Amino acid sequence: MENYYQPEIECASAEQIRAWQNERLVKQVKHVYDNVPYYRKKMVEKGVEPGDVKSIDDLYKLPFLTKDDLREAYPYGLLAKPLEDCVRIQSTSGTTGRRVVAFYTQNDIDLWDECCARAIVAAGGTNKDVVHVCYGYGLFTGGPGLNGGSHKVGSLTLPMSSGNTERQIQFMTDLGSTILCCTPSYAAYLAESIIERGLQGSIKLKAGIFGAEAWTEEMRHDIEEKLGIKAYDIYGLTEISGPGVSFECSEQTGMHINEDHFIAEIIDPVTEEVLPEGSKGELVFTSITKEAFPLLRYRTRDITVLSREKCSCGRTHVKMKKPMGRSDDMLIVKGVNVFPSQIEMVLMNKGYPANYQIIVDRVHNSDTIEVQVEMTPEMFSDNVGEITGREKELVGALKAMLGIYAKVKLVAPKTIQRSEGKAVRVIDKRNLYK
Ligand SMILES: [Zn+2]
User: What tens digit of pLDDT does each residue of 46-77 get?
Assistant: First the structure.
């Protein structure tokens, strides 16, 4: 089998990409309007008809779709093809409410496999590779997605699924796995386990494709060093297809979005206004080739930045930065968008435990933000001068990350109140939204 790389698509000119998007969008809007009463109603409410969308310049006219819509329409309300044309479902974990079920025709599965195949090729994969997939299989899209992509590339695919670390390492050494696909936290755990067993010399891994959870650059370097590989990021969501909506190339400066299948927009999460390229905002996707479950202007809640800067890999598809937060969690402090995840990243990078609280207040019409952070027992035994020094260091690091001053207060271990279930990270005393 030949290598799967398709430069004619992934390196197409901007004009060509736009032409594909225009043609496919017009077709998709008609398909959705004709076959999904739920969506037709939303379009009618917004006073837009399929004929009003003649190119991607008209995309803004369409209504947004949110996770609430998907939950409301559960299970069949957004299905755009007869059930007899569907061959598979996948589903979200449903940890924050009702599950979302996505439907696939065989063409939709092929499209998804193609996106994942591109991700594997971008990580250096060919038909000579042994692709070790330890994302979960089942309703979760991680395992089936990379599995299908690996088949398409022609690599030998090990459908390991998650867990059973002993067996993972055994197969990895016996069969000479070269590309590892899993969550970054599991990759870090596998790396530790391999080192503990002194097996670094027995593994043949060269690359890893890691996604489905947030991870830092520090974590990337750590995994790369321990496993002796290059670690690539991959992004996707069940609603849009699964992993492979975008993926990193050798440059590792953002993830190329498969623009022949998905149109990306960045909007202001509060005003819903479309923002110019290069702005930080909420990522919105329109799937222009999906048949069974096509979503138009789906708000992902992920906050990121798009960039069309020329990439050294030759791919021309727009790149998105690793998501830097969720619009649901966004705080506006002194007019600046602040995400708890940004603060958490700074704390993690500086070696603090994940016990912190962000207190936002308004004093004399001016916003204030204070971050209370628990020290480790070792830090707690430092003298007062050292603790003050640590606080100053954190203030500087937070300023660099957020662009505003945040007061830092280091507190004794185990003093921040623990809550049952999800931790309360933010206390907003301004009552702005109540
Ligand atoms: Zn690239």
Answer: 999 999 999 999 999 999 999 999 989 999 99
Q: Report how far apart the first and last C-alpha atoms of the chain are (Å, whole number).
A: 60
Report the separation in Å between the CA atom of 123 and the middle of ligand 1, taken as the mean of its atom positions: 10
Residues 170 and 75 in one domain: yes
Q: How far is the CA of 248 from the centre of ligand 1 (A)?
A: 7
Give the torsion sign (CA, 383, 387, 390, 392).
negative
Average pLDDT, the chain: 92
| Number of alpha carbons in the 13 Å side-chain half-sphere of residue 402 | 31
Q: Does residue 319 sit in the same domain as residue 385? A: no
Ligand 1 mean position, distance from CA 287 (Å): 22
Residue 180 burial by CB count (10 A; 0-12/13-18/19+): exposed, middle or buried? buried
What pTM value is reported for the model? Answer: 0.84
So what's the pLDDT on residue 434? 40
Q: 132: CA distance to ligand 1 center in Å?
A: 23
What pLDDT score was predicted for residue 4?
81
Residue 248 and residue 318 in one domain: yes
How many domains in the chain?
Answer: 2
Cα 151 to ligand 1 centroid, rounded to whole Å: 23
How many Å lie between the centroid of ligand 1 and the Cα of residue 119?
11
Ligand 1 centre from 163 Cα, in Å?
32
Residues 169 and 284 in one domain: yes
**Which residues in the chain come in under a pLDDT of 50?**
1, 433-434
251 Cα–ligand 1 center, Å: 6
Residue 160's domain spans which residues? 1-326
